[in-house]
Write a structure and sequence with these properties.
By secondary structure, the chain is of the alpha+beta class. The protein is built from four helices and seven strands, in the order βαβββαβαββα.
Length: 166
């Protein structure tokens, strides 16, 4: 499996993860947002079929106004840089085959690369639904606001990102 930036050569129309919103983003918005430097989408493809998208993730810059409850960032008065995992989806045919895990590890790796260039306190994500939270927790993601159960936002501190990539 290869993970690379989305290009015109990738067949976006055939992708179906079962969530209309995620399908629509890939099919209608992902390339335009990359061209405008709003976000960057990376696709997973099998080497034998490099134009068929089996999954994707989208990363964007993120400014943390209210830092997560973490001893290193408590009461910090200015916005902090981070990376946002805006989307992660796997085609129905490939669900259950660890493609999501490969995409998440790739997103974590790219977060580490960003942190080495401009600084980033970690990787943030808004799980699509509460059922997805355990997927992120198994990699060390924490609640961004442990005092508020209604907020699904989670984050992976940069030190944990680095540990995962070692």
């Amino acid at each position: 499996m290869i993970i690379e930036a989305l290009t015109r050569q990738h067949n976006r129309t055939a992708f179906d993860c079962g969530v209309a919103e995620l399908n629509q983003f890939l099919q209608q918005q992902a390339r335009q947002k990359a061209v405008k430097s709003i976000s960057k989408t990376y696709v997973a493809c099998q080497e034998s079929a490099p134009d068929v998208i089996v999954g994707y993730h989208t990363l964007t810059g993120y400014s943390v106004i209210t830092p997560p409850a973490h001893r290193n960032y408590k009461n910090y008065p200015h916005p902090l840089n981070a990376v946002k995992l805006a989307r992660l989806a796997v085609d129905r045919v490939h669900q259950g085959h660890k493609v999501g895990e490969r995409l998440l590890i790739d997103a974590i790796y790219r977060t580490v690369l960003v942190s080495q260039q401009i600084s980033a306190i970690g990787l943030f994500v808004d799980p699509f639904s509460p059922e997805i939270i355990p997927f992120y927790q198994q990699y060390g993601f924490l609640s961004a606001d442990p005092m508020n159960d209604s907020i699904l936002e989670m984050w992976l501190p940069i030190a944990t990102c680095i540990e995962i990539c070692l």
